[in-house]
Predict the 3D structure of the following.
Amino acid sequence: MTDIDDARDDDVLDLLAGRLVKEAGITKDQARELIKLIGTDWSSLLREAHFIKESGTDK
């Protein structure tokens, strides 16, 4: 993978993490970690993010 590909991947990760932060109310670090663990399946990400938010581990 080239530096350009790495930068593009980071941009996509930031975009997806930002959307998850806005829609689920978790931190950007939590969103990035979820994406790394789960992948980019939006339904799964949103479900887990809501679980994090409801369980109070978003601090």
